[in-house]
């Protein structure tokens, strides 16, 4: 009897396509990184000559950065699903870490006249994968630069066995539909909404693989009301054990 190899061929083709897709994403990500570096140079050159042109270039940079982040998420999720994503957990000085992430987007903040403040004890430390968590923080900072009005507050502290990082903007806040569906395991990606929220999905996955005994990392979204000192806005919270 002749064996049917069609199912095996289909599986092999699928695996090959997945590997090809992952390799392509990696190459595109590298090209975008070079593009971002070149845009930084161009923006610096046009800093005084043509402010409007500089702003246009910075907008391009912001969108290129968002695309680059999306590719990083895709590559990370591929590795996660194929058990190729390993955690490199180390002790990290949180204030220094957060300052580096803010500095990496400082040009974007300057162009949009956004002031970023950091509230974190310089001696505060946490144990996490610095590279993966940097992807989470950078994604939120880029989004905040786009949607906030004037300020972004970055806060970090330890409480109840968790390192908690809050990134708060003074924009319109997060849509209630996103807040309500954040922890819905049955949610699907909506391509008609204008945003797939891939960054939030990736952030959830990365937070969750950080665990210590029975504690697991989480992300949360909320909207805060105005106070005497601060305007209302959206709050992204990352908690790591």
Tell me about this structure.
- This protein has 7 helices and 9 strands.
- The longest helix has 40 residues, at 6-45.
- 51% of the residues lie in helices and 21% in strands.
- It is globular and about 55 Å long.
- The chain starts with 5 loop residues before the first helix and ends with a strand.
- It has 2 domains: 6-81; 90-240, Histidine kinase-like ATPase, C-terminal domain (Heat Shock Protein 90), CATH 3.30.565.10.
- The strands form 3 sheets. A 5-stranded mixed sheet has the order 2-4-5-9-8.
- The model has no long low-confidence stretch (mean pLDDT 81).
- The chain is an alpha+beta fold.
Question: Which key features would you list for this structure?
Answer:
single chain, 241 residues, 2 domains, five-stranded mixed beta sheet
Layout of SSEs?
Elements: H1 6-45, H2 51-81, E1 89-93, H3 94-104, H4 106-111, E2 115-119, E3 125-129, H5 130-147, E4 151-159, E5 162-169, H6 176-181, H7 198-208, E6 211-212, E7 215-216, E8 218-224, E9 233-240
Parallel strand pairs: 2-4
Antiparallel strand pairs: 1-3, 4-5, 5-9, 6-7, 8-9
Helix pairs in contact: 1-2, 2-5, 2-7, 3-5, 5-7
